[in-house]
Design a protein that fits this description.
Shape: globular
Number of helices: 1
Structural class: mainly beta
Strand order of the largest sheet: 1-2-29-28-27
Helix content: under 10%
Number of strands: 29
């Protein structure tokens, strides 16, 4: 649990926009990233190793954090716009996609570079299949690359109508749901046949970037930036069930099935906590201020924490903030 791996430096209740006496998110740890400039993209965690990996996109580096000690322990330079990261289960090796050089790099648990897949221009988000045997990387003008995790070799490709942003992989099915903001739709893929089986138009808003999936209730959550909306879609039909206003400039959101909540972060400088009363009913129950530009995050249920990346901006230092979740 969180108390076992994260030393509580000070429990600071941040201001909330709700009428709750206490915020639903409490800042319990701040980890400085001195010298890290520019935008910070996505993160991944090695729960067993108690390490957090941060794609410092604007700094062209991979930042490695010891979560238990609450400090950065390594910085790997020269990655040329790192974006997506995943930790391979069992091996605890790290996969990092870089957009500017079109490479997907494989590091072992000691962070030694062991393999590289090339030719993936504008490589972006990274996901794994349920068994951790295949790696999916969004890239280029419209494709998902399929990479064999064992051989570190590209073994397939699924063509799309535009550059893919975030995507969600079913655990109990064979579908992948992909946000394609340039065409304002969600592409539904059959990962076994490696083909597109449906495209669902997004009519209520545009700039659909983050995505999360509730498989049990057949719901898909889409974060949009223009206007700022959280859309809830039926994952069987693509029909929009409901729409909520949310934090602006969103880039990450996560569904917590145990708590029946959605956690959404946006560069406007806030976290939304959204309650799922039923498959069709949702409401924001808490909003916590973070920092300008802090739009990327990572929810780690095993730790009971939401990590939020705050970039260096206007005197604000670059740092990772850890928020504990109140029940």
């Amino acid at each position: 649990m969180l108390r076992c791996i994260i030393p509580v430096l000070a429990v600071v209740a941040l201001a909330a926009f709700t009428r709750d006496e206490e915020p639903l998110m409490k800042l319990v740890q701040t980890i400085p990233l001195d010298g890290v400039n520019g935008r910070i993209d996505h993160m991944a965690v090695d729960v067993e190793g108690k390490r957090l990996y941060v794609a410092a996109l604007g700094n062209n580096s991979l930042e490695v954090i010891d979560v238990a000690a609450g400090k950065r322990i390594q910085s790997i330079a020269g990655l040329k716009k790192p974006t997506g990261i995943r930790v391979l289960p069992g091996k605890r090796s790290v996969v990092v996609a870089s957009g500017d050089d079109g490479k997907v790099r494989f590091y072992d648990r000691d962070l030694k570079l062991v393999s590289t897949v090339t030719g993936l221009d504008d490589a972006d988000n990274v996901r794994l299949d349920p068994q951790g045997k295949l790696i999916y990387v969004g890239y280029g003008d419209g494709a998902i690359a399929v990479i064999d995790a064992q051989r570190a070799e590209k073994v397939g490709e699924i063509k799309l109508d535009g550059h893919p942003e975030a995507f969600a992989v079913e655990t109990n099915g064979k579908r992948i749901f992909v946000n394609v903001p340039t065409t304002r739709h969600v592409a539904v893929l059959d990962r076994e046949k490696q083909t597109v089986i449906a495209t669902w138009p997004i009519r209520e808003a545009e700039a659909n970037f983050p995505i999360a999936l509730d498989e049990a209730n057949h719901r898909l959550f889409i974060g949009c930036r223009k206007p700022v909306k959280l859309l809830v879609l039926d994952s069987d039909t693509g029909k929009t069930v409901t729409a909520l206003d949310c934090c602006g400039d969103t880039d990450d959101l996560f569904y917590d099935p145990a708590a029946k909540r959605i956690y959404l972060t946006g560069g406007e400088g806030c976290i939304n906590v959204i309650e799922q009363a039923s498959a069709d009913q949702y409401r924001i129950i808490g909003t916590t201020r973070t920092a300008p530009g802090a739009r990327t995050s990572l929810y780690v249920p095993e730790m009971g924490v939401l990590f939020v990346a705050a970039p260096f901006r206007h005197g604000q230092r670059a740092e990772i903030r850890s928020y504990a979740l109140r029940g």
